[in-house]
TrEMBL record:
Residues 39-100 form the ANTAR domain. It comes from Streptomyces tauricus. It comes from the Bacteria. This is ANTAR domain-containing protein. SUPFAM superfamilies: CheY-like. InterPro entries: ANTAR, CheY-like_superfamily, WH-like_DNA-bd_sf. SMART domains: ANTAR. Transmembrane segments: none annotated. Residues 25-34 have a biased composition (Basic and acidic residues).
Length: 129
């Protein structure tokens, strides 16, 4: 069925959100205006979800590495990864990849190695205090 044959009101291009609008922002804007997300917005969100599913195993492995090395929980491992990510201005996935690579005798990149001790110290302090 072509778009022009679909039932319901037709939308003018002026009603579409600006190009580059995040799916979350577009959906929120659509909700507040009583509109549904566009096909382009749904496609963008689907791509983001696919990418997240592809990256999740590496992040989970990195959490496992932290759990094994430091006897932390999965949630604490996640918080350590996020702390390093935020303070090194590196995506969580990239921090996780670098950490998993250390299990194959790869050195940690300097910008990650610089922030990991602080993240571990913060975790220890929250655990002990």
């Amino acid at each position: 069925m072509r778009p022009s044959q679909r039932p319901g009101p037709r939308r003018d291009l002026a009603e579409l959100p600006p190009h580059g609008t995040s799916p979350e922002a577009a959906r929120e804007g659509a909700r507040t205006e009583g509109r549904m997300p566009t096909g382009e917005q749904l496609l963008a969100e689907t791509e983001q979800l696919k990418e997240a599913l592809e990256r999740r195993p590496v992040v989970d492995m990195a959490r496992g590495v932290l759990m094994a090395a430091w006897s932390c929980t999965a949630e604490e491992g996640w918080r350590i990864l996020v702390h390093v990510s935020q303070h090194s201005n590196t995506k969580v996935h990239d921090v996780a990849k670098a950490l998993v690579a250390t299990t194959q005798n790869e050195p940690l990149p300097a910008h990650i190695e610089e922030h990991l001790p602080a993240a571990l110290a913060q975790w220890r302090a929250s655990r002990d205090g």
